[in-house]
Amino acid sequence: MATIEIPVFLRSATGRMTRRQHLERSLASIIQAGGVNLDNGDRIMPAPFLLGRREETLAPLARQFGYPYSTDVEAVFRNPPDHAVYFEGSPTKLHHEGLTRAIDSGMHVYTEKPLTLSVDESLDLVRRCRQRGVCGGVVQDKRYLCGPAQAMDLIDRGLIGQPLHVLLDFGYFVHPDDGTRPDWNADKAEGGGIILDMVSHWDYLLKHLVGQPSRVSAHAALHIKQRTRNGQPVPTTAEDSVYATFEADSALSPEPVVCTTVSSWCRRPRKRGLLEIRIQGTEGAAEVYLDRCYWISNERTPSIAWDPDTASREDFPEGWELYEQAAVPENAFRHQWELFLRHVVTGSENPASLLDGAQGVETANQTAASAAAMGTPATIRNVRSLL
Ligand SMILES: NC(=O)c1ccc[n+]([C@@H]2O[C@H](COP(=O)([O-])OP(=O)(O)OC[C@H]3O[C@@H](n4cnc5c(N)ncnc54)[C@H](O)[C@@H]3O)[C@@H](O)[C@H]2O)c1
Predict the structure, then answer these.
(1) Which CA distances in Å does 44 have to 74, 168, 337?
(2) Parallel, antiparallel, or unpaired for β 212-221 and 378-379?
(3) Domain range spanning residue 84?
(4) Measuring CA to CA, how many Å separate 267 from each of 135, 148, 171, 176, 225?
(5) Tens-digit pLDDT profile for residues 51-78
(6) What is the pLDDT of residue 311?
(7) How many helices (H) and strands (E) does the chain have?
C-alpha cells in the first residue's frame, strides 16, 4: 500500500472560492480523511502549497492550515516538482495567462470555471495540454450537488419519459451597498458579468440533465447601475441579469428540449435555496433544488380543474415524492477533486476536461452574442469541431 504524494499549487489561495471550497472543504478535508483511496490499495495524498501576491494575507492563511506558501509564483513555474497540479483560482480574466505558464512548465492543471474569457483562449489551453501531455480539468461542481445529481439519475432511468421543457430560475439580491460578491464581478473590463459566470454552469448542468445546448436566444440587463465600493458610489458596467432560452439536444427526445433560464443578482427568492429547476417530461416531472429533488409520475398527477375560486388558493403537493435513489457525494467540490486526482494518477475518466470547459465558454459567449443582437437566436458550436 503506497502513498502517492501530489503537490498541489493553489494560486490566489486567499480568494473566496480557493480558500473556502478548494483549500478548506476539499484538499484539507481529503488530507484529514487519509487521502484518496485507489482500487489497488494505494492512496493519493495531496500536498497543498499556497500561492498569492500579498504576504500579509497569505502568511496567516498558510499558518492556519500548516501548509507552505510563496508570493513568488514565477519560481514555481521555473522549477515545478514532478507530478505537480496547478490550481487556478484567480479572477477569470487571469486564467489563460496562469494556466498557460503552468502547462508550459509541465504541470497538470485544474481550474475554476469559466475556463477563460474566450473560446480561442480555451482551445489554446486544450492544445497546449495535449502537446505537453499533461492533464487538465475544470470545476463543474453543480453537477454533483444532491438535487441536480438525483434529477440526472431520475431522467436517465426514464422515469419522467422524454424531457419536454426545463425552467431554471437562479439568483439572489446582491445589495448595491454590500460586498457579498467580489467587485470585479460587476466590472466588464475585469471579466465580470453574470453571463460568463453562470451560463458556464448552465451549459454542463443542462447537458447532463437533458442534453447539450445547441441554440440560444437571450436578453441581458444591467438592473443595478451603481454599487458602493470602499464607501464610494461606482457605476456598474457588467450585466447583472440574463434571461436566456436554450434548445438542448436530448438523446431521449426527437425534438430539442426548450430550457428557459433566469439568472439574476436582482432576484429575491422566497422558496428554499437559490436555484430551482422544474423539468417537465412525457411521463412525469421533476422539481429540483440544490439539496433535493422531488418528482411526480403521470399516474400520481392529480387531475386539476381550472376554477379560479379554488385553484388559486391551493398548493398541489399530492403525488410528489422525494427522489433519493442515486448515491450522491456529500461535498461536490471535494468529490470532483478526488475524481481529478484519480484521473491524474491512474488515467481514470476525467470528470470535466478543458474541452468541456471550452464548451461552457462557447455557450456563454453565444448567449452574450444573442443578447447583444436583441435576442436574435445564436448557434452554439460544438467546440470539438473547432480543434
Ligand atoms: N464554482 C463556483 O460556483 C464559483 C463561484 C464563484 C466564483 N467562481 C470562479 O472562481 C474564480 C475566482 O472567483 P472568486 O469569487 O473566488 O474571486 P475573488 O475575487 O474572491 O478571489 C480572487 C483572488 O485572486 C486574487 N487576485 C486578484 N487580482 C489578481 C491579480 N492581478 N493577480 C493575481 N491574483 C489576483 C485576489 O487577491 C483573490 O485572492 C473565478 O474564475 C470565478 O468565476 C466559481
Answers:
(1) 27, 37, 11
(2) antiparallel
(3) 3-138
(4) 38, 21, 6, 13, 15
(5) 999 999 999 999 999 999 999 999 999 9
(6) 66
(7) 11, 18
- Which residue's CA is the closest to the ligand 1 atom numbered 38? 15
- Least Cα distance to 238 among 194, 198, 199 occurs for 194
Instruction: Find the length of the chain.
Output: 387
Nearest protein CA to atom 39 of ligand 1, as residue: 15
Both 151 and 117 in a single domain? no
Q: Which atom of ligand 1 is nearest to the CA of 182?
A: 19
The answer on 169 and 30 residing in a single domain is: no
Question: Does a structural domain hold residue 290?
Answer: yes
Contact assessment for residue 363 and residue 202, using Cβ atoms and an 8 Å cutoff: yes
Q: Which residues contact 119 (CB under 8 A, 6 or more apart)?
A: 358, 361, 362, 365, 383, 386
Cβ of 141 below 6 Å from ligand 1: yes
Tell me the H-state helices in the chain.
16-17, 28-32, 55-65, 73-78, 95-104, 119-132, 146-156, 194, 200-209, 332-346, 354-372
149 and 198 in one domain?
yes
Number of domains in the chain: 2
The residue contributing the CA closest to ligand 1 atom 31 is 94
Residue 7 identity (one-letter amino acid): P
Q: What is Dmax (Cα atoms) for the chain? A: 74
> For the chain, which residues score pLDDT lower than 70?
311-312
- Do 109 and 93 lie in a common domain? yes
